[in-house]
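Newbie here. two chains, one complex. Structure please?
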Amino acid sequence: MPGPRFSILTPVFETPVDVLAAMLRSVRRQGYGDWELCLVDDRSADPRVQEMLAAAERDDPRIRVMTRTENGGIVAASDDALAMAKGEFLALLDHDDTLHPDALELVAEAIDAAPDVDYLYTDEDKIDAAGHHLGPFFKPDWSPERMRTQMYTCHLSVLRRALVEEVGGFDAEFEGSQDWDLVLRVTEKARRVVHVPRILYHWRMLETSAAGGGEEAKPWAFEAGTRAIQAHLERTGIPAEASRDTEHPGVYRLEPRLTEKPKVSIVIPTGGTVREVRYEPVVLVEHCVRSIVERSTYEDYEIVVVVDATVGDEVCARLTEIAGERLRLIPFEGPFNFSAKINRGAVHGDGEMLLLLNDDMEVVTADWIERLVMYAGLPGVGAVGGRLLWEDGRIQHAGIVFENAGFPGHIYRGFAREWHGYSNNVLVADNYLAVTGACMMTPREIFERVGGFSTTFPMNYNDVDYCLKLVSEGERIVYDPDTILYHFESSSRSTDVEEWEKDQLRGRWLPITITDPYSNPNLKYGIPRLSSPFRWMRRKPRLPFQR
Amino acid sequence: MAEPTTGDPQTTDGEVARLREENLRLRDLLIAKDAELGSLKGQVAALEAGTARLLNLVGRIRSMVPGLVWLALARLRGRGPQG
């Protein structure tokens, strides 16, 4: 069966001739033959550019060149290239970058495997002035929440032409971030998005490109990014305002602007543990509830504390004193079962949203509930977690990934607070297969639909199992970097995991967790594997008589 | 499922909560068993595919063996009178 035709769209402007030649060479060397290269010269002053383009057009009938009558900018040139395109899929290639020789072939294979795909993206790396490859970007599979705070799909992007035309092509209002805007508009309507986990695009680091010069090279592009996200939020009805992280180029934030503020039931199971916090012994649940009451700006919430029989009356009295009318004390008797306590608290609350919280937590960000409500209210989102820090400031939780044949682990556990992650993924909202139950918001309707926390996991993995139930039901799990809490971990429950717990988790969820879609084959717990440089540039294996 | 036998609101609330907890437990059981069943079906399919591959290999080897034996015998026979 023949594969699709690709139209490669490449606006050209003042490109150094050696760089332009490399770009043209990389297209001609594609192992997959059914492509057309739509080049639009945006009035380059250098005559050698025009000569090179004309020669390329003469040499290969698949290369077509259009020269604009006046300089119109990248959006106008891209729209002209789009008008020239006749292929079923559009591949966006910048004039100074190159494609891996297998790029179109591997994308065509991905399309063949998923015929209803409307948008595909691949991994990428950079090329420095000396021609060395560096900075590989190994990406996760489609992560809608990440796409709203970082243009992570970037290069190579391949879009179905019919859908691009349906959404109106490139928009001049977002010049500099026109790709991001286009991909957002396309993915709002896409039936399927596919990630090809291979480096098939090489982004050249020139002083004049965002890859090399960063924010200073194209400040307007980063501003346009904010506007592109904002337009997306308005189109999709997400109650938030986009802003740019000025310290980390390419990182954006969403600030909640809630129009509806549902009641939140904060469920806290406790055994009344006393522990030192900042060198002072405190009753953890009192400390936790006090921080909620004193720091939260959200108004409509209740606190359901599920108390063991061991918790003294004086602790309950102090909790009532701290939280007043908001507090509900629910007794729990019987053997320790964290899941049963969570479920008990949930059925005694009446909030539309459930916020499950360990008793060894301390709120840092005042709008933490607003932030969690913002994400938990999105269609398709089943649970939301935040960034948790140990008392000394190191990272305790920034999402959970599955490695070693389906075992969960916290990404960047123990890393410094300042660590912004691989490709800034600690700083941007992201999707994971699971987040910790130490702080997790979930809509009550979904919690009840999937049967809450499984009491067959009394100690460990109950939160992971809960998230995987949601994933199996088609829900997404979100990590929000700007919901920050301290977690005085390991005081609320044992951290030793029993073999039977591992077996039970794998017995249920191995088909989902064996290959974590939100990680990448070249990453381990969020860090590039030592073996990845050897796999990075490899060609597709071929038999001797092939090419 | 028994109806509450008393009109006392506290007892009724307690009973409702208990029933809701039981509802959660049963729903969880349903999803978990479904997941385990799916996982087992996957394992069975993988094992069957592996078995089919091995059987295919065995068949190919067996089909080659008589040919090899015949070749060896022919060689021996050919060498016999000359040797």
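Moderator note: The radius of gyration of chain A is 26 Å. The interface with chain B takes residues 340, 343-344, 346-348, 448-456, 468-469, 472-473, 507-511 of chain A (CB under 8 Å). Thread marked as resolved.
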